[in-house]
Structure formats: C-alpha cells, structure tokens
Amino acid sequence: MSKTKMKAETSSDLEQSLLSTEKLDRASPDIWPERNYPGIEYSVIEPTRSPEIPALPQSIIPQELDKHDYTLIGRYSKLTAQELIVEVKQLQNLAYQLGLEEAKEMTRGKSVN
Q: Compositional bias of type Basic and acidic residues: which residue ranges (predicted)?
C-alpha cells in the first residue's frame, strides 16, 4: 500500500472517530441554561458598549487662538504620521531638558537662599 493511501485511510479513520452522533435539543433549558451563575462574565455574548467620552472642562479648552496657534495647527496637520511622531519626540526631549534646567535653578536658588 502506498504512503498517501495509508495517510488517507488514517485521516478518514480519525475523522470518523471524532464525529459525534449526539443530537442537541437547543430549546432545552438544561442544555442552554439561563445566566444564573454568579461570577461568570458574558462579555463575549453581549457586545461591549463604548464608554461615553466626557466633555473637557472649559478651563482646559483655550478660549482664543492667536496667529501662532493657527500656524502650528496648519503645520502639524500637513505632517505624515512618522513626521508627527518625530515632532512629538522632539517636544518631549525639549520638555525634559527644560525640566532639568528648572531643577538646577531651583537647587541653586535654595542654596543661595
């Protein structure tokens, strides 16, 4: 007997052994019980609802934008995603450097009193 024929018979035997002849009565409450098990999450069954996005407080939203703000918005809107990531990293580095300088100045101010 060839190897392919033996493989085909083996896979056929395997498929036959995996078949189930049990008939499920889907209307039966014993087979499909109601959700009466405490602690079981049913998030797979029920679609998750997206949380409502809270509105920003008015104090955070700038009331007036000047010409420089509009220039920055225009410049950032023309950047690609990668360019925008580079720009954000540069801003983070600048903020870090300013933080270090401020810490040095505060330390110097405390020592001078």
A: 1-10
